[in-house]
Description:
Elements: E1 4-5, E2 19-30, E3 33-45, E4 51-53, H1 55-66
Parallel strand pairs: 1-4
Antiparallel strand pairs: 2-3, 3-4
The structure holds zinc ion.
Amino acid sequence: MKVSKMPKGNLCEFCEGKVERRVIQARVPFRGQTIYVDKVPARVCTKCGEPYFDAAVYKRLEEIAKHRRCIRKKVSFPLAAYDMALT
Ligand SMILES: [Zn+2]
């Protein structure tokens, strides 16, 4: 799973940007699939956007990913083609 655990202090591990508390839609890669979990409490780097999760939140995301067959709601995203006709 490519989600990062809490950094020490309030600085991003990657760019040392400031990390801010936010509620986000988390992207959770799990065994070759990706699921999205809405309304996840996290901290997000204000510079590079890297999300960090508390250990408990991280664990819950893993659990959700394992139980993804229980997900009821499927969301489709609008996907535009770059060369679509703009009329
Ligand atoms: Zn960063």
